[in-house]
Design brief:
Elements: H1 13-37, H2 42-50, H3 56-63, E1 70-73, E2 89-96, E3 99-106, H4 117-133, E4 137-143, H5 151-170, E5 175-184, H6 189-192, E6 196-200, E7 205-207, H7 211-218, H8 224-228, H9 230-237, E8 242-244, H10 247-259, H11 283-286, H12 297-301, E9 311-313, E10 321-328, E11 331-338, E12 342-343, H13 345-361, E13 365-371, E14 373-374, H14 378-382, H15 385-398, E15 403-412, H16 413-418, E16 428-431, E17 436-438, H17 442-460, H18 466-483, H19 486-491, H20 504-515
Parallel strand pairs: 3-4, 4-5, 5-6, 5-7, 6-8, 11-13, 12-14, 13-15, 15-16, 15-17
Antiparallel strand pairs: 1-2, 2-3, 9-10, 10-11
Helix pairs in contact: 4-5, 13-15, 17-18
């Protein structure tokens, strides 16, 4: 297989400038992650520890295999909102007794572990990943239930959490609940619908209605233990399968449950692959600080593919999109990478053919986004850009092999969809700090609105207000600049997390390992391609 050369010069002034901007963005993210790791703050952490309890991340650390990786998902969801950063829940993929699992842990130091709309969005995504990749789901439960101030946003869609637990079980995907504290009201159905439950003696409290509600509803006097204590559920109701002496014992039992599973996703070591020939540290300097400056994604591929080997498919046709075959940590991949921002008819047709080939060969697809959209204009419309773009979207929509995406730079308009954006259900979608995504770029969007307003004034016979137009343009540009950033999109749950470019190969290797836990099979059943 051909080996990629590199013309990138790390010491060049442009590379140094790009690296400085990337480091500034990473510094901002590091600060947010430090804030996230501090949970609800010192006061609530100290109170939690005074009760003899472990923090959510400490529980995860004791659950997963020593020195194994943990791929945290959607850590910065909720940023910029009135809800807790990270949704008050930690979700990710870790290895437990050699088995890759999805792990979800409530953070009781953050508003008592109550669930906000972002908690629900993140938990549902974790369940989706568990189902698609057939990964056991382990829930580390300690939650006050729904954040009642957000009940209008939570109640109706929140029922999907319980439905999904039963569907996971029906699909043969094991579900496990380790209950450390409160799991009340609707939250009681988390352990109630899991295949295996472990309750911590003296800690777990699982009931539909606590003592005050029972008193109000029935007039009955009952304490926490009588209504939902771990010992009661272990000896009387049967809701608890295992009674743990303490939190560490619960985590030990959880590991034993996973070790005894006869189904699940066992991590199979692959032969040690050839490392890339070029330094991954260069990735900080490859993406230009100015988003208007193009860059060659082959420079990135040379730093993430095994041995920097890349067999490019149709290299002379549709040159604004590079397609080809490679491998990451021993896992074969088909690559679609935007070379120049705009996609033309040739790129769309090449992509549709390549996606069909990947499905025929049962090879996962890696989408590397940096596109401003499909080309517009009279000649392109007459040349069939809509038909050809539809070919690519058809192929992406009906492709059955796993899709993994990384947004490197821009990802705008219908081209975001054609590159398997979030709405097209990729198995995983990550962003670099330099990522931007919106309907179109800020200047273009403001310009379109200005043209429409100008035409409207002309049609009404009015004098166009140039000063008001300038203010509108500036306002729109500012709004879209703020809304299109990697941080703004990850806050909404539109990706699975922002990653350090230097970690891209590692993250993609983990993701590819996970998707191979379920059968990787392509399809030849595509929709009608309009010719």
């Amino acid at each position: 297989m051909p080996v990629l050369d590199s013309s990138f010069e790390p010491a060049a002034p442009a590379a140094a400038a790009n690296r400085r901007v990337a480091e500034e963005r990473l510094g901002e993210l590091t600060g947010l992650l430090e804030q996230l790791n501090s949970g609800g703050g010192r006061r609530y952490i100290e109170r939690h520890r005074a009760r003899g309890k472990l923090l959510a991340r400490e529980r995860i650390e004791l659950l997963v295999d020593p020195d194994s990786p943990f791929l945290e998902l959607m850590p910065l969801i909720g940023w910029g909102t009135d809800h807790p950063l990270g949704g008050g829940i930690v979700c990710g993929i870790g290895v437990v007794e050699g088995v890759a699992c999805v792990v979800s842990a409530n953070d009781p130091t953050t508003r008592g572990g109550t669930m906000s709309p972002y908690t629900m969005r993140k938990f549902l995504r974790a369940m989706e990943i568990a189902h698609e990749n057939r990964l056991p789901l382990i829930n580390l439960v300690e939650s006050g239930g729904a954040d009642l101030s957000s009940q209008a946003e939570l109640f109706v869609p929140g029922g999907a959490m319980f439905r999904n637990l039963t569907r996971l079980s029906a699909a043969g995907v094991p579900t496990i609940a380790l209950v450390f504290g409160n799991s009340t009201a609707g939250g009681a159905y988390i352990p109630g619908m899991c295949d295996y439950t472990v309750f911590v003696d003296g800690g777990a409290k699982v009931f539909l209605g606590g003592p005050p509600l029972v008193k109000m509803a029935t007039g009955e006097d009952a304490d926490d233990e009588e209504l939902g204590g771990a010992a009661m559920h272990s000896r009387t109701s049967g809701l608890s399968d295992y009674l743990a002496a303490d939190e560490r014992d619960a985590l030990r039992i959880g590991r034993e449950i996973v070790a005894n599973l006869t189904v699940g996703a066992t991590v199979t070591p692959l032969p040690v692959p050839a490392a890339p020939l070029h330094d991954p540290a260069d990735l900080l300097g490859i993406v230009p600080a100015d988003p208007r400056v193009p860059f060659d994604p082959r420079e990135m591929l040379a730093r993430i593919l095994d041995g920097s080997r890349y067999d490019e498919f149709k290299p002379l046709y549709g040159a604004a999109l590079s397609t080809g075959w490679g491998a990451i940590h021993g896992h074969p991949v088909g690559v679609l990478a935007n070379v120049r921002g705009v996609l033309f008819s040739e790129e769309a047709q090449k992509a549709a053919q390549f996606i069909q080939l990947a499905n025929r060969n049962h090879v996962p697809l890696l989408f590397l986004h940096n596109t401003t959209g499909f080309m517009v204009g009279r000649d392109y419309e007459q040349g069939g850009i809509i038909k050809h773009g539809a070919h690519m979207i058809n192929a992406v929509s009906n492709s059955a092999v796993p899709h993994i995406g990384v947004i490197l730079g821009g990802s705008y308009g219908a081209a975001h969809y054609a590159m398997a954006g979030r709405a097209y259900a990729p198995r995983f979608l990550f962003s670099w700090p330099s990522a931007r995504s919106a309907v179109m770029g800020p200047q273009q969007l403001a310009g379109v609105l200005s043209i429409v307003a100008r035409a409207g004034a002309r049609a009404r016979g009015e004098v166009f207000d140039e000063e008001a137009d300038a203010r509108m343009r500036a306002s729109v540009v500012g709004q879209i600049e703020a809304e299109q950033t990697a941080l703004a999109n990850t806050a909404r749950g539109y990706d699975d997390g922002i990653i350090d470019p230097r970690d891209t190969r590692t993250v993609l290797g983990l993701a590819l390992s996970v998707v191979h836990n379920a059968p990787v099979r392509g399809t030849d059943g595509f929709g009608v391609f309009r010719l």
